[in-house]
Amino acid sequence: MKYEFRPVTEEDFPLLHWWHNQPWVADNWDGPRTLAQVTTRQREKMSSARDFAFIVCCDGRPIGYIQCQDCFEFGGGWWPDEPPGTWGIDTFIGEEDCLDKGHGSACVHAFAGKLFRDMGAKKVIIDPRPDNIRAIRAYEKAEFRAVREITTPDGRALLMEIRRSDWEKWT
């Protein structure tokens, strides 16, 4: 399977809206969202120099979403102790027939590689809710390791990370 990450465009807003309202996404991404909420948030990302959003495609088919942030520059109470070179990611699989097939771990691993190669990342972090076992297992399969529980603006989270040197061992 080949994963590609293309920047979100306005044409993607209806698809993102639909995905955000699927139970497996809504349960872990602050509930269902209106099209207006999706549009506002994605337009903010499109104009940001530190917060980027992508559609995850597998063999050309859109299957999910991934966003990344330069942690050192991001602010807002997110990851205040992370050093320069740390990038944070958030992701979901939007298509139900793609759940539990290994796409989450494979695309997260591939996207971490993109951040290491293209953005000069030294470390990539992700922070699922501690009760989101499906996501935690996927990230562990992608070679992320649990660091500690933290408090984020969204509540409790399990901080997980992969360092460039660890990623290089597995590629």
Note down, in words, how this protein is organized.
The structure is a single chain. This protein has 171 residues and is of the alpha+beta class. The protein has a single domain (3-122), classed as Aminopeptidase, CATH 3.40.630.30. The chain has helices at residues 13-20, 23-26, 35-46, 71-74, 103-118, 133-141, 164-169; strands at 3-7, 51-58, 61-70, 86-93, 123-126, 145-152, 155-163. It has a seven-stranded mixed sheet with strand order 1-2-3-4-5-7-6. α5 (103-118) packs across α6. It is globular and about 40 Å long. The model has no long low-confidence stretch (mean pLDDT 91).
Mean pLDDT: 91
Give the oligomeric state. Answer: single chain
Strand order of the largest sheet: 1-2-3-4-5-7-6
What number of structural domains do the residues give?
Answer: 1
Shape: globular
Taking pLDDT < 50 over at least 5 consecutive residues as the criterion, the unreliable ranges are: none
How far apart are the first and last residues' alpha carbons, in Å?
A: 15 Å
CATH class (first level) name: Alpha Beta
Beta content = 25-35%
The CATH superfamily is known as: Gcn5-related N-acetyltransferase (GNAT)
| DSSP strand count | 7
Instruction: Please give the largest β-sheet.
Output: 7 strands, mixed
Written as H for each helix and E for each strand, in order along the chain, the element string is EHHHEEHEHEHEEH
Cα-based radius of gyration, to the nearest Å: 15 Å
Computed structural class: alpha+beta
CATH arch. level architecture: 3-Layer(aba) Sandwich
Helix content range: 25-40%
Q: What is the overall number of helices?
A: 7
